[in-house]
Amino acid sequence: MKNFLALAAIVPAALAQTPYGCYTEVPARALTGSSLVNYTSMTIPDCETYCTGLSFSIWGLEYSGECYCGNALAQGSFPAFSTDCTMPCAGDPTTTCGGPNRLSLFGTSEEPPTVTPYPHPEVTTMQYEGCWTEVSGVRALSGASAFSASVMTVDGCGSYCLNSGFTWFGLEYSAECYCGNELDGNSTAAVETECNMACTGDLNILCGGSDRLSVYQWV
C-alpha cells in the first residue's frame, strides 16, 4: 500500500477538459484573453495547461498550432460543422486542432459557452420556399456559405445562416449551404423534382440539386 500511495502521488491529475466542438472564428478573435503559437509541437493539453494556468476557462485551437484563451466568446462565434475542424494538432496528429478560421473549442464547464449571434430579426420557424435555380456566375444567396461532405443537414444550414445574421438559406449539391437576406433577382422557381439530391448528413431530406437550391426562410 505504501508503494501504491507513493506512485499515485507523482502521477499528475487528469486535465478536466470538456470538448464543445468546432466553432467559427470571427474577423476579430473569438477568444481574446491570451494566445500561444507553436506550429511544431502544439497539443490540446498544452493549450489547456497554458490557458487554465492564466485562469481562463475556455480555450480553442486553430490551424494545427495556434492556441487562444478567454472566458467568453466574442459576438459572432458559434458552432460550425464538425467537418470544418479537420487539421491535426502539430504535436499530436491523432487529435484535431481546428481548421482555417475554425476553433476546436474546450472549457472547464460541462455547459458550452453562451453564443451571441450576429443581429437578425426575431424568428422561430424555418419555412420551405421551394426549389430555385442557381445562375452561372451569380449566387442566388450571396451571404455566408459553408460546405460539409458528410454532415450537412437542413437544420445545420439553417442554424449556421441564422447565427451569421441571415434569414434566408439554401442547400445545393447535397453538401453546400448558402445564406442571404433575399434571393438574387436572376434566380427563378424551378420544378421541385430538380432538387433531388439527399443531404450528406440526412439521406431522408433533400438538399438541392445540380445548380438548384432547396430554399428556406426563417420566419
Automatic annotation (TrEMBL):
Residue ranges of domain WSC in the record: 16-109, 125-219
Keywords in alphabetical order: Repeat, Signal
Signal peptide: 1-16
Keyword Repeat: yes
UniProt KW RNA-binding keyword: no
Pfam families assigned: WSC
Protein name: WSC domain-containing protein
